[in-house]
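Supplementary Note 3. Input sequence used for the single-chain structure prediction.
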Amino acid sequence: MIRLYILVICFICSFVLNTFAKDESIYDKIDLFGEVLDKIGKEYVEDVDQSKTIDAAINGVLQSLDPYSSYLSPKNLEEMQTDTRGKFGGLGIEVGMEAGVVKVISPIDNSPAERKGIKAGDYIVKINNIQVQGKTLNEAVDLMRGPVGSDIEITVRRIGVRKSLKFNITREIIEVASVKSQIFDNKIGYIRLTSFNENSDDQVKKEISKFRKNTKIDGYILDLRNNPGGLLTQAIRISDFFLNEGEIVSTKGRDKEENEKWFAKKGDLIKGKALIVLINKGSASASEIVAGALKDHKRAILVGQTSYGKGSVQSIIPLKNRGAIRLTISKYYLPSGQSISEVGVTPDIFVEEDNDDFRILSENDNQLNFARKLFTG
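The predicted structure, written as C-alpha cells, is reproduced below.
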C-alpha cells in the first residue's frame, strides 16, 4: 500500500509541478501531498478509506485536464468493456462532465431514460436526493447503476425550463442494437445508427445491401441523432461507405505518432444516390466525424441541430492494478481542417425539435419528417 501511495504522489506531483511556481520543487509537493493525506487520516471527522481517497486524487488530476480524461478502477474498466460490446445494465444514458456537473450526452433509443423523457443536454443535479455536484463522473455513474428492476429518481435541470424536473426510472438490462432500418415512402432507405460499437460497420453494410436490391430506393437517410459515438475505426469505415475518395479525418497530438490521416477508398456503396444525415445535440464524437466528413465532401445534406462538440480522442492506458486511465491523446480534425471541439458540426438546414413530446421515430419527429419531405418535394 505504501508503494502505491508513493507512485500516486509522484504521478500527481509531476502534474502539479507544471502549474505551480517554478521555485517550488517536486519534492516540496510530494511532502505537501503526504502531509495532507496524513492530516486527513488522523483528523477528519470520520474514518476515511485511504484507497478511495487516492482514487479520487488520481481522478481529480485527470478530470482537471478535460471532461473526458478519467481514472477507471478495475471494476469501472470491466463495466466499460461490457458497454462497448453492446449489453449492460442501467438507465440507458451516455453522460459526461461539464464544469463539474454531470451532463447527459444522449439517451439510448428505447431505453428506460429515453422513454421517461430524459433528453440530450440535461444536467443531472440529484440522484435519489443525493447531490451530484462535487462528485466525480465515475461516482455519479455508480449511483445510477443498480439491480435490474430497481427504481431510481433522477433530478435534472434543462435549459429553457425554470423548475428542475424529476424522473422516476426503473433500471433495465440495456441491449444496444446499434443499427435499425426501414423504408419510407416506398423510396427512401432509412438507417438509424445509435452507437459505434465493434460490429456497427457490418450491420450498416448489411442494411445497405438489402436496400440496393430494391430498385425503387432512390435516396437514403442516415440518422445519427442521440448517437454518443464509440470506436474511431468504426466512424472511419462507415464514412468510407459513402465516399469514393478524399480525407475522412485526421488526428493531431503532442506525440507525433498520434498524428494520422485516414482516407476513403473507392467504392460508394449507395452509388452516388442522394444522402441526408440527421444530427442533433446528442450526436457526439464518432457521429461528428461521419457527419463532418460527409458534409465537407458535399456528399450529404445535414439536417437537424448542431452536434455536441466532442473533438478529442481518448486512449485506454492499462495500469498495474488492472484498472486504467482514459486519457486524451489527440484531437481530431475534419477534412476542412476544422476542429469540432466545443463547437460541434453545424447542419446545412437547422430544424429544432418541435416540443417536449418530441421522440425520434414518432409521429412528432419533425426532423425526420422534414428530411422525408426533401425527397418527396
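DSSP finds ten helices and 19 strands in the chain. The first strand starts at residue 70 and ends at 72.
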